[in-house]
Write a structure and sequence with these properties.
Elements lengths: L6 H14 L7 H15 L5 E5 L6 H9 L2 E6 L2 H14 L7 E5 L12 E7 L9 H12 E12 L5 E3 L9 E3 L2 H8 L4 E10 L3 H10 L1 H4 L4 H7 L2 H4 L4 H8 L1 E3 L5 E10 L2
Parallel strand pairs: 1-2, 1-4, 2-3, 4-5
Antiparallel strand pairs: 5-10, 6-7, 8-9, 8-10
Helix pairs in contact: 1-2, 2-3
Length: about 270
């Protein structure tokens, strides 16, 4: 994370999350820091920032406070719309300040063509069934201004797969192989400017880790154990140690389980 310029953003987001009483997460430590870095590079007062599927993310309020752009935290789920509203209340923010919460369908956005300077969709579009991810990417390209920036993060795998549910998510999810990433998420009007893939550590290191924690893992993977036991909620501050120790970042998708992609809208 240090080499990729993400660690300072993780630290700032960590402190921001503490104020919001929101836990940090093994994978979001990377995804959110990647998003914050690119938002910080292109946002300023007068810009427009839209976050898709905001959920419990601290990024919209963080980037608003850091950059002062007009910010929209969007969701389909009323529970998470309320979560984002609670963050704003905690920080003493309202629509009058230039930050708001609203319901949006990623495949049919209400924003005008070329109205958005920065758009992020962190672990969101893989949950839209059918061709929803493709339609969402078309909408993202439509609403971005020329030169505007887009961050998308999705799970990856060696082969493309669609699941109706996973052990940690009770809904549809797809995992992208390199071909599916190219075919479903890339568009001619969007130029890829950075790609980081989350990759497991070398087999020898991972085997030693599994052996050292054999008493706690009970034959499961470390990530399954971490989430199934609710340790991500009980010990959120430990997440950064697992992020740094068990996730490598690579520009190459080989062997990856997650992708962080940044695009720029072509003129």
């Amino acid at each position: 994370m240090l080499r990729e310029g993400l660690l300072p953003y993780w630290w700032m987001l960590y402190r921001h999350s503490k104020v919001l009483n929101q836990r940090t997460d093994i994978f979001r430590n990377i995804e959110d820091a990647f998003t914050a870095k690119h938002g910080d590079l292109c946002l300023r007062a007068g810009s427009v920032y839209v976050d898709i599927g905001s959920g419990s993310s601290p990024v919209p309020t963080f980037l608003y406070q850091r950059c002062g752009a007009r910010t929209y935290a969007t969701e389909m789920d009323p529970t998470y719309l309320d979560r984002q509203k609670s963050y704003m209340q905690t920080l003493g923010l309202s629509k009058r300040d230039g930050i708001g919460v609203q319901r949006e369908d990623a495949t049919k956005l209400s924003f005008a063509d070329g109205a958005v300077d920065f758009l992020s969709a962190v672990s969101t579009i893989e949950h839209i069934p059918g061709d929803g991810d493709i339609r969402a990417m078309a909408e993202f390209a439509r609403v971005l201004r020329p030169g505007g920036r887009l961050v998308v993060t999705v799970p990856t795998a060696a082969t493309y797969v669609e699941n109706q549910a996973t052990f940690y998510y009770a809904g549809f999810e797809r995992r992208y192989d390199p071909t599916a990433l190219q075919d479903r998420l890339f568009r001619p009007e969007l130029k890829l400017i950075e790609q980081l893939y989350m990759v497991s550590p070398p087999a020898e290191f991972f085997q030693q880790f599994q052996e050292s924690f054999r008493e706690f893992l009970h034959g499961e993977s470390w990530s399954d154990t971490w989430y199934k036991n609710g340790w991500h909620d009980q010990y959120p501050d430990v997440s950064i140690l697992l992020t740094v120790g068990l996730i490598r970042l690579s520009p190459n998708p080989a062997g990856s389980f997650g992708a962080c992609l940044a695009f720029q809208k072509q003129d």
